[in-house]
Amino acid sequence: MQIIHLLQDWWNHQTWLEIAGVITGLICVYLAAINNIWNWPIATISVTIYIFIFFEARLFADMGLQVYFFVVNLYGWYYWSMRPADEKKVPVATITKREILLSVGAVIFFTVLLGSLLKYTTASFPYLDSFCTACSLVAQVFLARKVLENWLIWIFVDVIYVGVYIYKDLHLTAVMYAIYVAIALKGYLDWRRDLQSQTATLNNKHQA
Question: Which residues contact 125 (CB under 8 A, 6 or more apart)?
Fold first, then answer.
């Protein structure tokens, strides 16, 4: 009975806004993992909800990140709809050496910039929050461009976010990000399989 009371008390502390954010967040990430273009409109709804959630939690870098996500979601929706005429989906790509160097530089730059600004505010974990934000900026662009390695970045970042959200008492959000880790792993495996299929098809065309 005590466990039931504890669960009821925990549930009473959750907000409908966070519940809606969790549900739409899980749906959109799952749809992205299975290569479904409808992840983008649902993702747009989810990030709008989390703009308000993170503002109240004083996670300002994360709040700004949601605004960025909103814009990139629209771009991703457009990019995924521009598939080649002979393809059912936009082909999966792999990261290049140039993109790796640019990504590392971007993560360092935005971590230092955002962290230096946020440390003068009431923000929680200014540099850690900024580092996760910087990694997410890069990962979201790669997701929109269908670069396979975006999922590896998300797995890394989401593990960190789980700890942050538990500390901030955003328990449902922490659970959501733990599930994100599993979905991101599925996304990586599924997209890698698609890439292998693309490569095999291309090789067969060249041999024909």
Answer: 164
